[in-house]
Amino acid sequence: MKVTNINGTSQKTCKCGSWLDHWKNFSEQTLPAYCPEVNCYNKPEVGAHVQKDSSTDKSWYIVPLCKTHNAKKGETITIIDIDSIKLVSANVSETCG
Q1: CA distances from 87 to 63, 70 (A)
Q2: pTM given for the model
Q3: Which of 12, 28, 46, 87 has the least CB density, counted as fewest CB within 10 Å?
């Protein structure tokens, strides 16, 4: 699946403490050993705000990424199969709000 890293979201907050904790709380998955970008072997360190690429779905989602891939704002990132890494809604009114 391809996602686009969203620009200018660092000021957004949630009640989980961090966006990575938000992903952990609502994905029902354990944190992967590696960043889910298909060719990356770095440790996932942040919960990144992303949108599905080439989709009519313009919702914002959280996915764990390494700091290197999180820094690629506005770029399309290919992540491993969505069944392996769930996208969690960044809409706090639907989750931790």
Answers
A1: 6, 15
A2: 0.89
A3: 28
Which residues have CB under 8 Å from 1's CB, separation 6+?
Answer: 52, 53, 78, 79, 81, 82
Q: Using alpha carbons only, what angle is made at residue 10 by residues 14 and 15, rounded to the nearest 5 degrees?
A: 10
Structural domain tally of the chain? 1
Residue for token pair 């998955």: 29
Question: In angstroms, rounded to a whole number, what is the distance separating the alpha carbons of residues 54 and 5?
Answer: 13
User: What's the one-letter identity of residue 36?
Assistant: P
d(C-alpha 40, C-alpha 18), whole Å: 22
> Which domain range does residue 22 map to?
2-94
Cα 41 to Cα 11, 44, 63: the distances in Å are: 28, 9, 16
